[in-house]
Specification:
By secondary structure, the protein is an all-alpha fold. The protein has 10 helices and no strands.
């Protein structure tokens, strides 16, 4: 095994996140809400680009490249995203423990959902959702996501967070902010372009869809979120956090 400063950094981040939740839960919850808000706003721009550039052969390329801005904002503002926290907490391992890990995941997931609902509510109040045509890409996208089988959603969830956490991991490997920004955007592009299932991004998509001319029900949205969340835990927690924790031992424990 080879020692890795990135593993040490990821473990320290996981420990710090857990301590923040224990010592100052309100601050942690607010950071979780902010992450859901940021990702929902960027997600809405993604679907708007998909709709407006629908006839352009490079439309999906442009929209997918833009989405990395969401994860970048979350990282640079120290907001708390459930999907990347699956990786951090697994790397932190026994220092944090299973109970505290599960608690943090649940609180963060709920905070992200509150943030998604908040932005969807603001867009609704502003009249933005009412202006969307019935054939808008967001409605079609939400319907496609919700009407897949459980197995497909689960596997796409694994792939999505494998890529997202890989973007976070690569970002920790570079030293300057410009390189970090570019690496995150370029890697995140993969999961958007291939239409994988990111539970937190889906929260925003479903929330906006349900407030408009939706082709899905609340039960459809919950079905997707259940299996995409489980897939995200495997993709980020095991395929990134677990694998790199196995490959590179921690040199110290706090």
């Amino acid at each position: 095994m080879i020692e890795s400063p990135v593993v040490e950094k990821a473990a320290a981040s996981g420990i710090k996140k857990s301590r923040t939740l224990e010592d100052d839960p309100l601050r942690y919850i607010v950071r979780s809400v902010l992450a859901g808000m940021y990702l929902t706003l960027v997600g809405f721009v993604f679907w708007s680009l998909m709709h407006n550039l629908g006839g352009n052969p490079f439309g999906k390329v442009i929209a997918s490249a833009f989405f990395g801005v969401g994860l970048s904002v979350i990282i640079f503002t120290n907001a708390e995203l459930f999907t990347s926290n699956t990786m951090y907490m697994v790397v932190a391992g026994e220092t944090v423990g299973i109970a505290r890990t599960l608690k943090l995941w649940c609180v963060c997931w709920i905070g992200n959902l509150i943030g998604a609902l908040a932005v969807a509510g603001l867009l609704y109040a502003a009249g933005v959702i009412a202006e969307l045509p019935a054939n808008h890409a967001l409605y079609a996208g939400a319907a496609h996501k919700a009407h897949q089988t459980a197995g497909v959603i689960f596997v796409k969830g694994i792939l999505a967070n494998w890529v997202v956490c890989l973007a976070v991991w690569v970002g920790m490997c570079v030293k300057d902010d410009v390189s970090k920004l570019l690496s995150i955007i370029l890697v995140v592009f993969i999961f958007l372009y291939l239409s994988f299932e990111h539970s937190i991004a889906n929260m925003g998509t479903f929330s906006i869809s349900l407030l408009g001319q939706s082709q899905i029900t609340l039960a459809d949205a919950a079905f997707n979120l259940l299996f995409s969340t489980l897939g995200n835990i495997v993709g980020g927690g095991l395929l990134i956090g677990g694998v790199y924790r196995f490959l590179s031992p921690l040199t110290s424990k706090e």
